[in-house]
Design brief:
By secondary structure, this protein is α/β, with parallel strands linked by helices. Helix content is about 35%, strand content about 15%. About 35% of the residues are buried.
Length: about 180
């Protein structure tokens, strides 16, 4: 049994990761701004300030793996990258593995840096979200080698339940270390 903390565990993908991990018998805790509308049995839910460093330090240190399902929306615009830097720092200190569900980021080979290949038709909001999540990837690439992390870039046509299954597979049987990966599609 793995102790899993899902930050953003009541959102679209976070709630699916919570459900899948719980169904497999893992000890799952969700940290979100709000309680879920439909809680998953045998899951601990914490509603707290996900931008508070002391809250993050406490929850990260209590887990074997932390998965961030945060996105730069709904008040997190401009704050997602700094929050994830804080989470990464706490994960490194506590020896906790970190998974980040990033945005769809076409044009980046696994683990590479640089600007994406063009994405015609992207809105300014989507572009800003992509840029912030890209900053998160760059931050992870710059972390010391003793932080084990994986960054998931879902394909645009992802089945979110299958994506959650793939993420929980990576948590329970790690294959990707310090790498950007794409599951499904």
């Amino acid at each position: 049994m793995v102790r899993i903390m899902v930050i953003g565990g009541t959102g679209v993908i976070g709630s699916r990761i919570v459900a899948e991990a719980s169904a497999r018998g893992h000890a799952v805790t969700s940290l979100s701004r709000n309680q879920p509308l439909a809680p998953v049995p045998d899951t601990e839910y914490i509603a707290d300030d996900i931008q508070d460093a002391s809250v993050l330090r406490r929850v990260v240190g209590d887990a074997d793996v932390v998965v961030s399902a945060l996105s730069p929306r709904a008040g997190m615009e401009g704050n997602t990258a700094p929050v994830l830097r804080c989470i990464a720092d706490h994960a490194r200190v506590s020896g906790t593995r970190l998974g980040v569900v990033g945005g769809v980021a076409p044009g980046h080979p696994e683990g590479s840096r640089g600007h994406p290949e063009g994405s015609p038709g992207q809105s300014a909001e989507s572009t800003q979200e992509w840029l912030e999540m890209d900053a998160v990837l760059y931050d992870l690439l710059d972390t010391p080698e003793d932080l084990d992390w994986f960054y998931v870039s879902p394909p645009t046509d992802s089945d979110l339940d299958d994506l959650a299954k793939s993420i929980v597979d990576e948590i329970t049987e790690p294959v990707h270390h310090r790498a950007r990966v794409t599951f499904g599609g």
